[in-house]
Design a protein that fits this description.
Helix content: 40-55%
Number of domains: 2
Radius of gyration: 25 Å
Mean pLDDT: 87
Low-confidence stretches: 73-90
Structural class: alpha/beta
Number of strands: 15
CATH superfamily of the largest domain: Aldolase class I
Largest sheet: 8 strands, parallel
Distance between the termini: 56 Å
Amino acid sequence: MTRIGIVVLMVVAALASGVAAVGISPWWWPAAVPLALLGLLGSWDLLQRRHSVLRNYPVLGHARFLMERIRPELQQYFIERNFDGRPFDRDIRSIVYERAKGTDAEEPFGTERDVYQPGYEFLVPSMAPCPVPKAAPRVRVGGPDCARPYDMALLNVSAMSFGSLSANAILALNGGAAAGGFAHDTGEGGLSEYHLRPGGDLIWEIGTGYFGCRTRDGGFDPGEFADKAAHDQVKCVSLKLSQGAKPGIGGVLPGAKVNAEIARVREVPEGRTVISPPYHRAFSTPRELVRFIARMRELSGGKPAGFKLCVGSRREFLAVCKAMREEGTAPDFIVVDGAEGGTGAAPLEFADHIGAPLTEGLLTVHNALVGAGLRDRVKIGASGKIATGTDLVKRMVQGADYGNAARAMMFAVGCIQAQRCHTNTCPTGVTTQDPRRARALDVGDKTPRVRRLQEATVASALQIMASMGVTDPAQLRPHMLRRRIDPSTLRSYEELYEWLGHGQLLAEPPESWAADWNAADPDRWN
């Protein structure tokens, strides 16, 4: 039975009970009044625009909000009794939701984390904090081979495809990017009208399926790529090598979500599950990868070109660095995706056990580029559970120039983590192609939430940096982030990790890097 049918049934039952109460017996009033109230509540749920759950589940959806109200008390109950052996961490989702709604995200009392627990990290405040900058700095993306550099915001929308997300979700995300002046990564699912209609800046991502620039046999079509990359809203072009949540396998879009529109955008058969290949057909060596990135930049008319990966073998990445030096060209940016990143469809073993977490990935890429003398040409983006200003500052300390957020942006447009992304039955209309369910996501309401979330998160990052005595991300240093090793030992990132000097791999590689650097071959993987 449809949601509208349930509400109509309640209204009809209320009217019938009211007639019976007037014409038969007043004992019908106890049934008529509650049914009338439920009918009015259901009608209001269908008409309101703020809560997607209530639009899809009138009346019943209020149970979720009731549970949200009592959740803090339940958490405290378990904390006090220590039933699970550890206290609850602060709910990051609550912070994101509040910031997206534009309400105060501050909470009373102190931290809920055990600051003496090994692994606890904190940023180092200064005794001489700085004023918070009035305007957020931007990152110039574009090396010496780039004719049309782009000034990237500190936080942007990470890669999420049309098909994986609904049209309304894409409209809200891009509308928020347009209003807030930040970039929106299309994901590998092609360039759709929903990416273009609101007018936000785009990073067009191309995956192994080459969706949107695809030949009949599934190869790369340079002519179609050049035509679409020329669009004014496309500010950068990006090649997806691997995804943090499932490195080594391609993306999956279930056939239930491949309607006629998705099939047209991706240039695939309607109704069939779309499985991207695990590897690229357009190149087969590190050298060919570097050449292909340069070709993408040329085909796009000189726009910044780069690639995204979840780091695995350090030796393979060093082979790419060697290829950059020998070819005399480099990507304008590299997005490092952490293994802790999310996805709507991936084998559990891949999500839990394959690929480097974001911290190790960033440190590997940053140090490899510095050691190879290439860091000044290549900007680094970080992607993987970035939701707060603290997350953003930590990643910039670890070597990133800017961050991309996916999960937090999904929260902003209404995601409640129902974990039904792959079933086409998302209760809030975020990850479904069912038009009745997708309708619940009101674009007009969710667009400003995306803008507010990005704005508040960047403002938080600037405030944190100011408390550290820093006015620009370029001033952040590894000693400003510290980790507890045991109850009596703290170490800074400067002490915990090795940091290479400019060109150090070219001159005299340190012993810990020498074997991988010497074995790295720009003409073969592994």
